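Render this sequence as a predicted structure.
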Amino acid sequence: MAGKEALVTQIKELQRTDPNAKQAWTDFSDTQLNGARDPNRQDEAVLANFLTLYSTGGLSSIQQQAAAYRAAPPTPMDKIKLLQKSDPLARQAWTDYCDAMLGGIKDPNRHDPNTINQFLQLYQTGGAPAVQQAARAWGGGNGKGMGKGGGTLTDLCSFIKAGQKASPEHFRTAWVTYCTVYGGGRCDPGRHDESFVSGFVEYIGELANHGLTALAQQAGIQVDTAEVGQKRKHGWDDPSAKRSASSIAPSNDPMIIQLAERVKNAQRQNPATKEAWIMYCNQTAGGVKDPLRHDAGSLQTFLATNGV
């Protein structure tokens, strides 16, 4: 088999000199490679497969698929399945992505279209290296899970089920409502990825923390969060501005509440936004991640910077 560089050159030369070959590569890319038409982006075996098909006249089925594709574009689930079949690098990238960011769930049918489109866009723009870098950044390199503070999907599902049994009126209703608003009405935690379930756990933790913090303040009780494993290194530029998260009461300002909800929703819907928020808080707010403990200017800056 010729080397990859030679195969790339051969395909590019075919496209320059043969309109039929150019259309054939376009059809092949659209139906087998998720529209990625740069030969340099493809594995050597993929390039050799195309040239074999083209030279032996085996492209008729691909041309038929391309015609059907353009008449009715495939779903994100179809795209990811085709990409895995045709590109070994993409198949491994999807595995890495699922292990690090989606609780190890590799069946595309168990993910929503937005989740799959995020992977496809990442792979199409940066290939396997971009996916692997995002997976390491999100998962902390631990193979599965959500990095610091995140449990495995199995642990989280057990927690959700136990919570519903222990509190059928409040916890169960909260979970059902969360799934109805953000999860397409699917209430089985096993049918969601890890980021979705851990997002709910974080959400109810925030609500409980706000309520209990307000009660403690009303009672004049000083709560030292450092004693329960929440000590942080602060990063304020001005030493006089240093303050602990527990000393900043959640705001009741309607404007801040509205902005905070936008930040929370954006984090639930996009893991990359969640990572961006954590980084923003560590760099500009001393690690305070509760949006209700930020001022309006801070929230507006984050939303504008990240296009939310």
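Summary. The longest helix spans residues 113-139. Residues 139-151, 226-246 have pLDDT under 50 and may be disordered.
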